[in-house]
Amino acid sequence: MWARVTSIGLKGMDGYRVNVEVGTYVGNDSFKIVGLPDAAVKESKERIIAALGSLGVMLHGNKIIINLSPADQKKMGPMFDFPMAMGVLLSLHEIEAVIPEDTGFIGALSLSGALQPVEGMLPAILSARKLGIQRLYIPVDEQLPDLDFIGLDLIYVTSLKDVIGHLTGQWTPSTIKKVGTKPTCLVNYHLDFQQIIGQDGAKHALEVAAAGEHHVLMTGPPGCGKSLLAESFPSILPPLTKEAQLEVLSLYQLSRSAYSRNDQPPFRSPHHSASGISIIGGGQIPRPGEISLAHHGVLFLDEIGEFPKKTLDLLRQPLENGFITISRTHASITYPASFLLIAARNPCPCGYAGSNTHYCTCSTKQIISYQNRLSGPLRDRFDINLSLRAINIEAAATVGKGESSKIVRERVQEARERQYQRYGGEMCNSRAPYEVLVHDNPITEVQQTMLQQLALEKNWTNRTQIKIIRLARTIADLQGSSSITDQNIHEAIQLNGDINGDRHHM
After folding, report:
1. CA-CA distances (angstroms) from residue 16 to 5, 12, 38?
2. pLDDT category of residue 179 using cuts at 50, 70 and 90
């Protein structure tokens, strides 16, 4: 006899429908799984035989063939144990029930017939909704967040016996866990802008960066506050939406990393000794790297000049496109990597070039060589370039505390809401296509002429001119202005800095 049930396969974060086709024939004892199964899927055979045996279902005298379709996609992991066991039961008429094609099964089996959660269950559930699955049977997993998807019923089961009981109407509806909602976790920030003494100009620049998702490069001597500014930056970012939280949690599950489930954007700060694979992602079985774990959040590269140049150049694609594609012999996997990059570096090898308090021991050649560790194309990806100097703590303390992160975050949220309304979705100025940007934010002919004259004088690229327009639009959004003013453009030029000349000192 023949039966078919539906499951979900994963290719990175993307899921695809897998049809588990089971044929049972009278003949010599055999159990064959086809459809490009990996070792974990092939081992499902023994788990399925033992689990069905615990239910009193014996497979002696049967020839069983299981096909995992589509046959050209490699199937990995034990998540197909559950659907394959269901297909065998249906083909043997051990279950007299009609299972619609929009009902799916995901989970691993123990030898006793108990169902166990598997790696990547959350991205599989998210993919099931996109693929039109209406009902999904999954193992009970306390690590899963509460979900509130309209049109998707999740039925949590602990064993094959429970599934059979539900399909045959012997399991009471009260045991079905309907997806519900859960209050958003309160964000607990460890650092607040008020804790930073001085650096008001840099804090304003970071506010602009947060409002428009602009990348930032900070250059300054040791102890001027670069790391403190970066580590407090997440405190002024708006909280993640429910969808963004689930997407971030899915990436952390696939990477087997711990993640505190709250609405605070992730903050990743890898050491410069980290390998390229750990930062970009990859491995024999490609997993998300630091840039994907920083999705919807912040990636902070301290002492960026100490990172291998090859690794830094690999950042150019995700900075431009918001995703990273990892190609291997058997597959090409894409992970989302839409992050805000904050980088910090010293002005020279000793760190004190241009300092008024320390003598720099570096030659001009050493300084140029040190700064050239950051390639021109990558430097061109930074919208804001800050040159920081050490703060006189006693003088700055007399000024008083600055604004708290909560106040700044509210302004950032309002500025982003204006951008979302303008672009018709969750898109900020730094990521809006140029055609959309200039259509929705036209600048005057006088402003255009001024930018073109400055571009000729300072040898700006087209990218630099566009960055200035993006920054000016974000500054106007923070001010609640519907148009870009000349003052907004001048401030944007100061924040962007002249890559080929003087930078804006904070």
Report:
1. 14, 11, 17
2. very low
